[in-house]
Amino acid sequence: MSLTMYGVGLDYPDGERTVTALEDVSLRVAPGELLAVTGPSGSGKSSLLAVASGLVRPTRGSISVGDSDVTDMPGRELSALRLTRIGIVFQQPNLVGSLTAAEQLQVTEHMRGRSARKARDRAVQLLATVGLAGKQHRRPHRLSGGERQRVNIARALMGSPEVLLVDEPTSALDRERGARIVELLREVTSHYGIATVLVTHDTRHLSHTDRAVSIVDGRLSDAAPHEG
Ligand SMILES: Nc1ncnc2c1ncn2[C@@H]1O[C@H](COP(=O)(O)OP(=O)(O)OP(=O)(O)O)[C@@H](O)[C@H]1O
C-alpha cells in the first residue's frame, strides 16, 4: 500500500497569528520505496510525519494510506489504522528500562489481539531480522545506541505496517552506525514492501534511499543535494 498526500497544509495557532508549518505538500510513496525527506531545522519535517501518521490533522489537503482516506477519519478508526497499518519510529527509542528487547515489542500486542505466545515468537523473529538474534533477553542498558534503535525499528514492524514513518533515526549515532541503520531500513522496506518515509538532516545517508525530497519553509522541492 502506498502513502499519498495531496495539497497538504498545516497551520499551528501562535497567539493572534498562525504559523504555517506545511504548505501545498503533495507526494506519493510506493510500496517498497524508501523516500528521504531532508531540510533545515524548523522546515516542517516533523510536521510532515505528524500529519502522515494521523497524529495531527492537516489544515488543508488530503492524506491516504492505500485506498483509505485518513484525512477526516474518526479518531477511533484512525487509532486502529495506526495500530495495524502505520509504523512510527521516533527519534529517541523510548524503550522501557525494565523490559527486555523482546518485551519492548510484546508489550502492546494484546491491543492487536495476538496471543502472548504468538507475540513472543514474532518479537524474537523480528529482532533477528534487525540483526539482534540472541539478544532478545537484553535490557536497554545492555544494548548499544545502534542496537536500541534497531529494537525501536523492530517494534514499529510488529503490526506489519504498510507505511513506516521514521524520524531522524541516526541523530544519536556515529556515521558508520547511522549508515547501517539506513541500510536496515532499506532492507525491511524492500523485504516487506513497505512505503517508508525517512526524515533525516544527514544528506550522507541519501545514497541508500530511492528518492529524496527536501523541505524548506514547509514546501517540498525535488532532490536534496548529495554531500560527502
Ligand atoms: N506545536 C506547535 N505550535 C506552534 N508552532 C509549531 C508547533 N510545532 C512546530 N511549530 C512550528 O512549525 C514549523 C515546522 O516545525 P517542525 O517541527 O515540523 O520542523 P522540523 O523540520 O521538524 O525541525 P527540526 O529539524 O528542528 O526538528 C516551525 O516554524 C515550528 O516553529
From TrEMBL:
The question of whether ATP-binding is a record keyword is answered with: yes
Matching InterPro entries, A to Z? Answer: AAA+_ATPase, ABC_transporter-like_ATP-bd, ABC_transporter-like_CS, ABC_transpr_LolD-like, MacB-like_ATP-bd, P-loop_NTPase
PROSITE patterns of this UniProt entry?
Answer: ABC_TRANSPORTER_1, ABC_TRANSPORTER_2
Per its UniProt entry, which superkingdom is the organism in? Bacteria
The alphabetized UniProt keywords are:
ATP-binding, Nucleotide-binding, Transport
Q: Name one GO molecular function term.
A: ATP binding
What's one GO-annotated cellular component?
A: plasma membrane
Q: Where do the ABC transporter domain residues begin and end?
A: 3-228
Q: What is this protein called?
A: ABC transporter ATP-binding protein
Q: What is the lineage of its organism?
A: Bacteria, Bacillati, Actinomycetota, Actinomycetes, Actinopolysporales
